[in-house]
């Protein structure tokens, strides 16, 4: 029985896989936006400080490694989940093959490698 306090319990496996892909894309977009903002701010501040405006460059630099880390973790999560999904599909097919009438042990050994 799923834990009612776990928000992921409301999602099936495919929806969780989609969510991981969305998370990965969002992290990539955030990193790209950060890098573009850093480049823009560097060009802007080459002309000198902007009066009445705080320099955002230190904060942008602080967040860049975090965004890279988030993207790396989200990518690994999506890859891991896709591999687990592929593995479970292969196991399911193997089980169905073994259950099929008329399959010899030799055919089963051939499927398992």
List keywords for this structure.
mainly alpha; 3 helices; elongated; about 0% strand
Would you kindly provide a written description of the structure presented here, covering whatever features stand out?
The relative contact order is 0.10. This protein is mainly α and 113 residues long. The chain has one domain. The protein has helices spanning 13-46, 57-99, 105-112. The radius of gyration is 24 Å and the shape is elongated. 75% of the residues lie in helices and 0% in strands. The chain has 3 helices and no strands. Helix 1 (13-46) runs antiparallel to helix 2.
Secondary-structure map:
Layout: H1 13-46, H2 57-99, H3 105-112
Helix pairs in contact: 1-2
Strand content: under 5%
Global structural class: mainly alpha
Poorly predicted runs: none
Helix content: over 70%
Shape: elongated
The profile of the biggest β sheet is: none
Give the integer mean of the pLDDT values. Answer: 84
Helix/strand order, N-terminal first: HHH
Strand runs, count: 0
Distance between the termini: 36 Å
Based on CA atoms alone, the radius of gyration comes out at 24 Å
Count up the helices. 3
User: How many separate domains make up the residues?
Assistant: 1
């Amino acid at each position: 029985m799923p834990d009612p306090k776990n928000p992921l319990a409301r999602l099936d496996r495919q929806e969780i896989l989609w969510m991981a892909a969305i998370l990965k894309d969002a992290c990539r977009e955030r990193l790209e936006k950060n890098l573009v903002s850093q480049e823009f701010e560097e060009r802007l501040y080459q002309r000198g400080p902007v009066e009445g405006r705080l320099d955002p460059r230190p904060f942008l630099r602080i967040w860049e490694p975090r965004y890279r880390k988030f993207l790396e973790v989200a990518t690994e999560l999506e890859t891991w989940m896709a591999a687990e999904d592929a593995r479970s599909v292969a196991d399911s097919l193997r089980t169905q093959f073994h259950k099929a009438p008329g399959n010899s042990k030799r055919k089963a050994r051939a499927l398992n490698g």
